[in-house]
Amino acid sequence: MIDSFFNLDVMARVLPAIISGMWVTIGLSILVITSGTVFGLALATLRALQYKVVNLFIVFFVDAFRAIPALVILMVVFFALPYVDVQLSGFVTAWLCLSLVLAAFCEEIFWTSILSVDKGQWEAARSTGFSFLRSLRYVVLPQAMRLALPPLTNRAIAIGKSTALASVVAVPEILNQASSAQAQAANASPLTLAAIAYLAIFLPLVVMSRWVESRFAWRQ
Amino acid sequence: MQLTRSPPPILEIEGLRKTFGDTEVLRGIDLEVGREELIFIIGPSGSGKSTLLRCCNRLEDATDGSIRFDGTDISAPSVDINELRQQMGMVFQSFNLYPHLTALGNVTLALHRAVGQTKDESEERGRAALGRVGLSEKEDAYPNELSGGQQQRVAIARALALEPRILLMDEPTSALDPELVGGVLKVIRELEESGMTMLIVSHEMQFAREAADRVIFLDQGEVLESGAPDQIFSSPKHERTRAFLKRILAQP
């Protein structure tokens, strides 16, 4: 048992591969979280402008990407697009797909947060000569952010973890490295090491998210 | 008592109509506001008082009729509504202060981010505005650290900082505890003395009697009566005005 899950020999041998996988996981997570959040915020802003047709598309996109499993989206894009002569690398595919999934969730989080800011705040801002977008930027979003932050950090951590899905499209991130090492060594220890690697990356984030939440709480 | 002090009026409302769905809230309002005039708008709830104010700075768009501010039709396509709104300060019943900003931050935000003043310029003017409402020492306080009366005075300062030419006040004292009303009324009184034009929806009858140049009674979306406070309060012409005043004045 210990030999097949905590084989230090095997662990030492695959450690460099796992560490290189950690960099890929970290890099991909940062890219996905950045572009997904920005795109989600852009969609929520667009939705706030209340163009009926545009909003129909936004709602459809958001609902679809929240309903379809990320793994399915990833595989469809990776294996189907080559038939229309679009060849994306596994890394770009994972970045694109996970960003869209995160954007869908973020849009919904931003949107409900924006809605929950009192209408009087908009009116006060507009009455002092702020345009719609500046009212959003300087008055509504700073308040909406406080509400959005806890669910946003949860979502960001969740999507960071799901970069593990990129292993199926041959992105050499932690899980991909670990499972090929496991196959080669005929031993499960690389997977244990992978779990430790995820813990090392995401546990500090989980702890930090708690700090961020309290830091942004209302000043009493 | 002059009805209009110096022609032409700063605000001219003509045939203003506003409908929400099937409900006609304003049914043809005609009203001229003279420069430096202090007008009180009274009337039962649902009579369209707030809507009238909100049409003046286009928080609501009129369904029909025209509103001219200093000679300019406010719904003309060439009008920069954001610039216009800065000249028409608005004060809300529920203050609507920005909870994430200090008193000074509330007062300077539009100066800095909408007008485009530097931070220093905006803070200088913001402090002056807070001084006018007697809250200089509270500039670092957040709204939830202030009493209702203080919050409303910050809200007045926020409007004043933009150096408006008219103030639209929507029930500025209705959300306040009775003992806090006086501080806000004192500020309004000082603004009047400094020559500010004000259109106030309020049921502070005693204050209206002392301070207003004119009182307007709005009922069912129409101006039923308009005149000097003494005349409206002492000898109202309309039965509905009499009934309303009787109801209001009977309250403690």
What is this entry, summarized?
With 220 residues, chain A is an all-alpha fold. Chain A has a single domain, classed as MetI-like fold.
Could you please describe the fold and organization of this structure?
The complex is a heterodimer of chains A (220) and B (252). Chain A has a single domain, classed as MetI-like (MetI-like fold, Orthogonal Bundle). Chain A has helices at 2-5, 8-48, 52-67, 70-80, 90-116, 119-127, 132-161, 174-185, 189-215. In chain A, helix 2 runs antiparallel to helix 7 (132-161), helix 2 (8-48) runs parallel beside helix 9 (189-215) and helix 5 crosses helix 7 (132-161). The mean pLDDT of chain A is 92. With 220 residues, chain A is mainly alpha-helical. Chain B has 2 domains: 37-62 and 166-252, P-loop containing nucleotide triphosphate hydrolases (Rossmann fold); 100-164. A 6-stranded mixed beta sheet of chain B has the order 6-7-8-3-9-10, with helices on both faces. A 4-stranded antiparallel beta sheet of chain B has the order 2-1-4-5, with helices on one face. In chain B, a hairpin with a 2-residue loop joins strand 4 and strand 5. The longest helix of chain B has 16 residues, at 178-193. Chain B starts with 10 loop residues before the first strand and ends with a helix. The interface between A and B is medium-sized, with 21 and 27 residues.
